Prior knowledge:
It catalyses: NAD(+) + NADPH + H(+)(in) = NADH + NADP(+) + H(+)(out). Keywords: Cell inner membrane, Cell membrane, Membrane, NAD, NADP, Translocase, Transmembrane, Transmembrane helix. It is an enzyme of class 7 (translocase). The chain is mainly alpha-helical. The protein has helices at 2-6, 8-26, 33-56, 63-93. The chain has one domain (2-93). 78% of the residues lie in helices and 0% in strands.
Amino acid sequence: xxxxxxxxxxxxxxxxxxxxxxxxxxxxxxxxxxxxxxxxxxxxxxxxxxxxxxxxxxxxxxxxxxxxxxxxxxxxxxxxxxxxxxxxxxxxxxxxxxxxx
Length: 101
């Protein structure tokens, strides 16, 4: 409870960012989804590298931080791989019927 009280402004900021992100993504035209997803995958890759570097600096006896960092890296990798999968499927939709294999 003390953590929430000490970081209430940050919590409000994160909630505000979530709502703004939902509004922005909901209003993106369908033609822009593929390039935006590719850019998001590139950004996620950079974030993953930073996360791994941070995990390497956590003391080996702090199991809670290591587990949390491991889960974060796993979810980030899942996000990147899912993004590439969806981008690939979307790009296949633009192929002509003669080029499909």
